[in-house]
Specification:
This protein is about 55% helix and about 10% strand. By secondary structure, it is of the alpha/beta class. Strands 2-3-1-4-5 form a 5-stranded parallel β-sheet, with helices on both faces. Helix 1 crosses helix 7 and helix 5 crosses helix 6. The radius of gyration is 15 Å and the shape is globular.
């Protein structure tokens, strides 16, 4: 069985949901890197971002990634920007089985517009601004994401039945 399964992709792709489902099926503990950071730092990620700025936040995120990615038998979901800084993507590929949950900008927008309150970055954007932001940011990050060892299309992941299909695809690809 894989020692470490690392889920990457844009926000709203379902990394946390898929991670929880994989954890239930495999018995491997699940960690969300943002939640890990919040627990360790006693503040929410948006608050840390606002207080420290992106550069200091990304350095701390990098350090925390190195902590969690050393755990054995773990499933880890990373923030959407995590693979795009430092050597994070190469490091994650060395540490485990990386899986890019790939979704179109339209699907991501559909997922994120209902979760806007939980995503401070998107809170004050109009629908058009949000769609354009997702399109541009996804385009700039895609080349990092596509370095993952496995790519799973999650465009159909709209309910629990589809999440189960995604988990089954991952289990088949990893032989677990």
């Amino acid at each position: 069985m894989a020692q470490r399964i690392i889920l990457i992709g844009y926000m709203g792709a379902g990394k946390t949901t898929v991670g929880h489902a994989l954890s239930k099926l495999t018995g491997m503990p699940f960690y969300d890197l943002d939640w890990y950071i919040e627990t360790r730092m006693h503040r929410k990620v948006p608050q840390l971002f606002a207080e420290w700025g992106e550069e200091k936040f990304r350095q701390m995120e990098h350090n925390m990634l190195h902590e969690v990615a050393e755990f054995d038998q773990v499933i880890l979901s990373c923030g959407g920007g995590t693979p795009c800084f430092f050597d994070n993507m190469d490091y994650m590929n060395q540490q485990g089985e990386t899986i890019y949950l790939k979704a179109s900008p339209e699907v991501l927008y559909g997922h994120l517009r209902v979760a806007r309150v939980e995503r401070p970055l998107l809170q004050n954007m109009t629908a058009e601004e949000m769609q354009e932001h997702i399109r541009q940011q996804l385009a700039s990050r895609e080349h990092y994401y596509e370095k993952a060892k496995h790519i799973v299309d999650v465009n159909q992941q709209t309910d629990f039945a589809h999440i189960k299909v995604t988990v089954d695809i991952i289990r088949k690809q990893l032989g677990i």
